[in-house]
Amino acid sequence: MATIAPERPRSRKLSEGPKPPGRERDRVFRWFTFLAALLVLLILALIFVSTVNQSWDWFSTRGLRAVFSSRWNQKVYPRGTANAGQPIPGSGFGAWALIFGTLYTSFVAILLAVPLSVGIALFTTDVGPRWLRNPVGYVVDLLAVVPSVVFGLWGVFVLATPIRNVYQSVADFFAGVPVLDKIFTGNPLLGTSVMTAGLILAIMITPIITSLTREVLATVPIAQKEGALALGATRWEMIRGAIFPHSRSGIVASVMIGLGRAMGETIAVALVIGAAVRVSPALFSPNNTLAAIIAQNFGEAQGIQRSALIGLGVVLFVITLLVNVMARAVLNRGERRLAAGK
Amino acid sequence: MHPTASQTDIVEPVTIDASSGRVENGIHLEVGDPEIFERDDPTRELVFDLERVQILYSGVAAVTDVNLDIASREVTAFIGPSGCGKTTVLRSLNRMHDTTPGAVVEGKILYHGEDLYGPKVDAAEVRRRIGMVFQKPNPFPKSIYDNVAYGPKINGRKRGDLDDLVEQALTRAALWDEVKDKLKRSALALSGGQQQRLCIARAIAVEPDVILMDEPCSALDPIATARIEDLMIELKREFTIVIVTHNMQQASRVADRTAFFTAELNESGKRMGLLVEYDTTNKIFTQPSDPRTEGYITGRFG
Fold it and tell me: Are strands A72-73 and A92-93 parallel, antiparallel or unpaired?
C-alpha cells in the first residue's frame, strides 16, 4: 500500500503557528451555551422583580401579618367610584388559606399520582410483558398532551355530579371515626371539592412523573438487577433492593417536577375546586388555590385586589422554590449520611 | 453434605499446590501427584449433570451439545476464547437466562438429580441455592452492611441474627478486618478488589450450595486477583464453585476440573460454542486429548 504520509508539523514549536481549525467554533459554541443559561436566570429574575413590583402595594401597605392571615375577602370599590380599587371596610387579602388549599390539593394529587406513576414506569421497564411495555408508555405520554382545560371541563361536567355520591358514602363510612371524620367529610359536601381537584391534578401529573421515572429506571444497570436476582430475589425484592436504591433521587426529582406542576396548575383546578377560601381539612368541600383564584378573579381585578392577586403569584413562586430546596436537602442529607457511614 | 475422608484426600494436594506455587506457565505446572488426582472417583457427589445442553438466543444456538458433570466441593473452571459460550453455560446453571428475552435452554440440567428447569421449580429458589458473582463488582448503592444483609433479609432472616451473619460472611470472604469499622459506609467507596470480595460475602451470606463466578477477577489487579483466588480455595471446603475465566493460569491454580470450550463455524456459517474437552485440570493442562485444547493452552489458537 503506497499512501502519502502527511507532512508532519514537527518542525515548528507548539506555541507558534495556526491554532486547530475547530478552535474558533468551539469558542462560539461555548458563548452560545453560556448565553442560553444566562437567559433563563435573567427571565426568572425579571419575572420575580416585575411581579414583586406590581404587588408591592399589597405586601407593603398591609404588612406580613395581613399577607399571611387566613382572611381573603377581596372586596374593593368598583370603577368609577371615588375610591375605585380601594378595599371596602371588612375586606381582607390574606394568603394563608390559599397556600393551605394549594398544598392540600397538591398533596392529595401526589398521594394518588406517585404510586400510580412509579407502578406504570416499572411496568414499562421491568415488569410488564415485553410486547405491552412500549404501547403503555406511548399511551401515558399521550395523556400529557391533553390541554388542562379539557381535564377541568371533564371534571366539572362529567365527573363532579356522579362522584358526589361516592364522596357521600365515604363520608358516611367515616362518620364518627375520630380524626378521619374531619378529613373524609364535606361541609357542604360537593362534587367540586379538594378531592376532585386532587383527582384531576393526579391525572394531569401522572404522565410527566411516569415519563421521568421511566427514564430514571432505565439507567439502573443490568448488573444491579442481576446482582439482586442472583441472591434469590423475586421481582419485587429486586425492585426494592436494586432498582429503588439506585433511582431514589431521580424518582424524587420526578415527583418534585410533578408537584411543581400540581401547585401551579391553574385552569383545571379553577374549574373543579369550587372556589371557597377556607382552611379546612374536609376533602369533599370546595376550597381554592393560589393559582386558581388568580384565574377566577384577575379579569375584573383592580387596585389593591389586582396587586394582591399578583402577590399570590409571587407567594406561589416562593413556595415552589422552597419545596424544591427542601427536597434537595433531604436527598443530599441521605447521601451524605451514607458516605460518612453514620 | 460434609466431604468424606476420601474426597478430602483427593482435594488436598490441589489446595496445597494452588496456594503455594503460582506458576507462570500453565503447561509446566505441577499439580500434586497425578496418580491420585486423575483417578476418577465414582463416589464423587454430583451437583450438576448437564446432558446435551444447547442454549439459543432468539433461535440461534450460542452453544451446543454440552455434556458435563460438576462435583460437590470442587472448583470447576470453564475456559476458552471469547464467544465460546462458557458464560452462557454458566448462566444456565442458576437460571439467569430466565430474564434474558429470547434465551432458551434446551437439553437437561440436573441439580442434585432434579431437573433445574422443571415446571415446579422456582427460579428465585434456584438462585438462593446457586449464587453468582459477576465479572464487574456490582455492590448495591447501599452501606456495606446492607449489601451483605440483603440476601438474608429477603430470605426471611430476622433482624436479630443479622449482625452475626454479616460479620460471619465478611470474615469468610476475607474482608472483615478491612471493613469492620465502616460497615455503615457506602459500599461504593471500597476498592474494586474489596467490592468483589463484598459481592462474594453477599453471595455467601445466603448460604448457597454453589457459587458461580463469571470472570470474577477480570476487572482486578494481580494482587486483588491473588486474594480472590486464595479465597476460592478456602471457600471450596464449604461450597461448590464454578468459575469462568479467560486466565488459564488462574484455572490451573484454582480449579480441580477444567472444561475447555471453543467456538467454531457450523454448516450455515454461524459461530457456535461447543465443549471440546472436560477433565481434571492437570490432564487438560499437561496431556490434553484434543488438539484444539492443546492449541489453546499452548498459545497456538485454533
Answer: antiparallel
CB contact under 8 A, A245 and B202: no
CB contact under 8 A, A338 and B96: no
Burial (CB count <10 Å: 0-12, 13-18, 19+), residue B148: buried
Contact across the interface for B131 and A338, Cβ inside 8 Å? no
Give mean pLDDT, residues B223-239: 91
CB–CB of A196/B87 below 8 Å? no
Task: Copy the grid coordinates of residue B170.
Answer: 465478611
Predicted confidence (pLDDT) per residue in A115-155, tens digit: 999 999 999 998 988 899 999 999 998 988 899 999 999 99
**What mean pLDDT, rounded, does chain B reach?**
84
Residues of B in contact with A231 (CB under 8 A): 127-128, 131, 150-151, 154, 202-203, 206
Residue ranges of A 221-280 with Cβ closer than 8 A to chain B: 221, 223-234, 237, 241-242, 245-246
Domain boundaries, chain B: 5-297
Spans of all domains in chain A = 51-94+301-342, 105-299
Residue A80 to residue A85: CA distance in whole angstroms? 10
CB contact (8 A) between residue A226 and residue B150: no
In CATH, the number for domain A105-299 is: 1.10.3720.10
B100-146, pLDDT tens digit by residue?
A: 888 999 999 999 999 999 999 999 999 999 999 999 999 998 899 99
Does the predicted interface ipTM exceed a cut of 0.95? no
Interchain pair A338, B101: CB under 8 A: no
Q: Which CATH number fits domain B5-297: 3.40.50.300, 2.60.40.10, 3.40.50.40, 3.30.830.10?
A: 3.40.50.300
* Chain A contact set for B203 (CB, 8 A): 230-231
Please name which of B203, B297, B296, B282 lies closest in space to residue B18, comparing C-alpha atoms: B282
- Chain A, nearest residue to B98 by Cα: A229
